[in-house]
Amino acid sequence: MSQPLSQEVLDQLFVTARTHNRFTGEVSDETLQRLYELVKMGPTAANSCPARFVFVKSPEAKQRLAPALDEGNRDKTLAAPVTVIVGYDLAFYDKLPYLFPHTDAKGWFDGKPEADLHTIGLRNSSLQGAYLILAARALGLDTGPMSGFDAAKIDAEFFAGTRIRSNFLVNLGEGDATQIFPRLPRLPFEEAARIL
């Protein structure tokens, strides 16, 4: 890990990578499994790994998702080869005896107020969702992360009877470069960062 990545790789992951609105192509189940194998290696607090991923791929599953989508996101999401629901498990600590076995990490979280568990789950599943975007790009997929959905409807449809809550959605596939907006500006270092 001592060598910087090539500019070509940095371009694919960050510089020229774009958020796509229209997708084509197919994404195999094997690619989705490979994607998860990369995502799961990213760090989370106490290796808690609270993210739970639902890869919505079949026409039947897409129809279950449709009623929860905002109008501006519906068509592009239903047309994408795969939409990932990035959720988080409020009972993530139940897995800590396996994920963090060298101490009683479960005791750090068991019995905490749900608001605290929500904060931890949301923060760390957001990290894992970002890993998913980068891992997808690394595997040659384009991504379209978004909000713009009714979380309560998604939770009722896909996570009923669990303590899993939805965080955000990511469309996956081969992006149609003719359907993206011009690159928007980013804040310069001096406005967004400090070195102390």
UniProtKB/TrEMBL annotation:
Cited Pfam families: Nitroreductase (PF00881)
Transmembrane regions listed in the UniProt entry: none
Cofactor (UniProt): FMN
Top-level taxon of the source organism: Bacteria
Keywords per UniProt: Flavoprotein, FMN, NAD, NADP, Oxidoreductase
Domain Nitroreductase positions: 27-156
Keyword Magnesium belongs to the record: no
Family, similarity comment: Belongs to the nitroreductase family. HadB/RutE subfamily.
The protein's name: Putative NADH dehydrogenase/NAD(P)H nitroreductase GCM10008101_18980
Lineage: Bacteria, Pseudomonadati, Pseudomonadota, Gammaproteobacteria, Lysobacterales
